[in-house]
Write a structure and sequence with these properties.
The chain is α/β, with parallel strands linked by helices. 38% of the residues lie in helices and 16% in strands. The protein is built from eight helices and twelve strands.
Length: 275
């Protein structure tokens, strides 16, 4: 199978591409230099020339807070770029996998969200990703929308690395009233492979279980055998430009392992890679 990946140099892409190759796929890695998704003519040309069997769309504007002040750029990448891909994939009958987010939800619930739960984003990032979803559904007959959450991986800046870098602080305060599902990029990549065996549609591909950012930090330090003066705090104590959903736990229907087990493997990999 010939698979084209957008955003191949990103945190997810760098873990996904080798995993796809391991299962025998011929992977065409693209990034903004080789496939500018905001350029509709370039998208049509590249996909028409390559004619991949599948496109996995990882490229995205992911700076949640900056999107509050720069909606134009977030929209150009997350909405227009996705629309360009969806239109061309639809015309060429190429299945499209679109990576979306738990931030399409408003966080007012209290039970794990099913894939057909009502969406209602409360920040610009979530809004642009939802509009990307809508474009995929509008223009593609064959698609998988994979919503994920609290993503971390060895190839990018993430919460796990931030916490470890702050381990020597006299006191470390972490938000305890936002609840979600930590997800390792490798788990997401393997979840995407499982999706390809399922009917087309919208799925939640995130770590199983749930925790707060404080609970996530606590588990990181426990697994690392680090004694850190960690304190829970409220969201209001650390105001950010973009609102975050208070509860964005998603029901992943068994697509990924328990988040604690995935974190263990990630931390082991850090040791092996001498990070």
């Amino acid at each position: 199978m010939k698979i084209l990946v957008t955003g191949a140099n990103g945190m997810l892409g760098q873990d996904l591409c080798p995993i796809l190759e391991d299962v025998g796929a011929f992977v065409i890695e693209t990034d903004v230099d080789t496939l500018d998704i905001t350029n509709s003519e370039m998208v049509q040309q590249v996909l028409s020339d390559i004619r991949p069997d599948l496109v996995i769309h990882c490229a995205a504007y992911t700076n949640v807070d900056k999107a509050e002040e720069d909606l134009e750029t977030a929209t150009k990448i997350n909405v227009t770029g996705t629309e360009n891909l969806a239109k061309t994939c639809g015309k060429l009958d190429i299945p499209l996998v679109y990576i979306s987010t738990d931030y399409v939800f408003d966080g007012t619930g209290s039970t794990p969200l099913k894939s057909d739960a009502p969406t209602n984003p409360i920040n610009n990032y979530g809004l642009t990703k939802l509009r990307g979803e809508e474009a995929v559904r509008k223009y593609c007959q064959k698609y998988y929308i994979a919503r994920t959450s609290w993503l971390y991986g060895i190839h990018g800046k993430n919460f796990v690395e931030t916490m470890i870098s702050l381990k020597d602080k006299e006191e470390l305060n972490v938000v305890d009233d936002q609840i979600g599902c930590p997800t390792w990029t490798v788990e997401l990549a393997n979840g995407i492979l499982k999706l390809l065996q399922k009917p087309y549609g919208t799925y939640h591909v995130c770590g199983s279980g749930q925790t707060s950012w404080y609970g996530f930090a606590k588990e990181i330090f426990t697994q690392c055998n680090l004694n850190v003066n960690l304190k829970p705090c409220k969201t209001e104590e650390f105001p950010r430009p973009a609102k975050r959903p208070k509860y964005s736990v998603m029901d992943n229907d068994g697509l990924c392992r328990k988040w604690e087990a995935a974190l263990h493997d990630y931390l082991q990999l850090r040791i092996e890679e001498n990070i």
